[in-house]
Amino acid sequence: MNPLKNIFTLTFLSLFIMGCESEKKEVKELEKVTTKIPTDCPKFILKNKKNNLNISVLLDLSDRIEKKNTVQKDSAYLSSLAKVFVNHVKGKKLILLEDRMQLFFNPVPNDTKINQIAEKLKVQFTKDTHKEDLDRTISLYSEYPSQLYDLAQKDAQLDKKYPGSDIWGFFKYHVNDYCIDACHRNILVILTDGFMYHENTIMKKENRTSYITSKSLKKIKLDRVDWKEEIRKRKLGFLSVEKEFKDLEVLVIGISDYDKSTPYARDILEVYWSDWFESMNIKNYKIKSADIPSSIEKVIFDFIKNK
User: Fold this and answer.
1) In the predicted model, is pLDDT for residue 16 greater than 80?
2) Least crowded by CB within 10 Å, which of 51, 124, 186, 254?
């Protein structure tokens, strides 16, 4: 074989391989840039990201809202959230305003009036915001939540059942699209009793499930003092949604502090939720039981102020 031809062939192959490696490296670098730098976020807004609030509220419209006390507390919590949000906005320079708050349900209720109220409770503040918009937000969140719950109860009576709240499905399919924005500090507030169930999202793998109810909690028999050891040993908990939300913070309010199935219900629910959040790489989260509105308002304030 011609030696010159061999040299030429080897040289060509070397250049080809180097070219491929270089191309791969460029693609990887491009991917890094694409994921790290949002194209639709002005630099001065991105620089102020931690101070730009994007607050999403997920309401659990399951049979928990049959209790009048729950409705009153939830309404007060939402009013407190609006006050804390508006006070945050008032503390910013007008040019730096890039803050929003919105409300979600999963599944979406059949009654269009409920969805219309949710649309009214969707607020956004920018440099074009007027003082009247701030005052109006507090009024909206003081006036409409109780109406929303009344409509949800009537909707359930017509269907002869509550649709449940698909919190697991919300994280699996909607959180990334609805609650996370590259230009903001993303906070999800969930008002729930901590039980999770929806008829269209019933999944199980070994001892992990996409749900937990009072009935299922009773079945797993954690009514002993060593309940925590049992959870670890049997690997009990919520099934992973197989997603990560590094840029999301979560505040859960309203966890049941008593259930007939076990005296440790509240503690067990907190462990379930904590383990679940950590499986999704959510670093900053807080889980609180239902309490008097004035106490929860401080919890909301401290969480948003990162205390």
Assistant:
1) no
2) 124
Residues 6+ apart with CB under 8 A from 219: none
In the sheet with 185-191, reading across from the earlier edge strand, the strands are 123-125, 99-104, 53-59, 185-191, 248-255, 285-289
Give CA–CA dist 35/17, Å, rounded.
27
- Measured distance CA(139)–CA(68) in Å, rounded: 22
Q: What angle do CA 175, 68, 59 make, to 5 degrees?
A: 5
> What is the rounded CA–CA span in Å between residue 202 and residue 169?
10
- Angstrom distance (rounded) from CA 142 to CA 14: 70
Beta strands in 87-226, from DSSP E residues, in sequence order: 99-104, 123-125, 185-191, 204-205, 208-209
- Using the predicted structure, report yes or no on whether residue 138 has a pLDDT greater than 80: yes
User: Residue 129, SS3?
Assistant: coil
Q: Which residues on neighbouring strands pair with residue 54, listed in sequence order?
A: 100, 186
Domains and CATH numbers, the chain: 52-304 (3.40.50)
Q: Which of 131, 75, 127, 130 is nearest to 103 (CA)?
A: 75
**Token couple for 254:** 């309203």
Q: Taking the mean position of all CA atoms in its chain, how far away is CA 161?
A: 25
Residue 171, class by beta-carbon neighbours within 10 Å (0-12 exposed, 13-18 middle, 19+ buried)?
buried
Instruction: Tell me the Ramachandran region of residue 99: left when phi exceeds 0, alpha when psi lies from -120 to 50, beta otherwise.
Output: beta
What is the pLDDT confidence band of residue 159, given thresholds at 50, 70 and 90? Answer: confident
The model's pTM:
0.86
Token representation of residue 136:
């109006």
β-sheet with 208-209: strand ranges across: 204-205, 208-209, 237-238
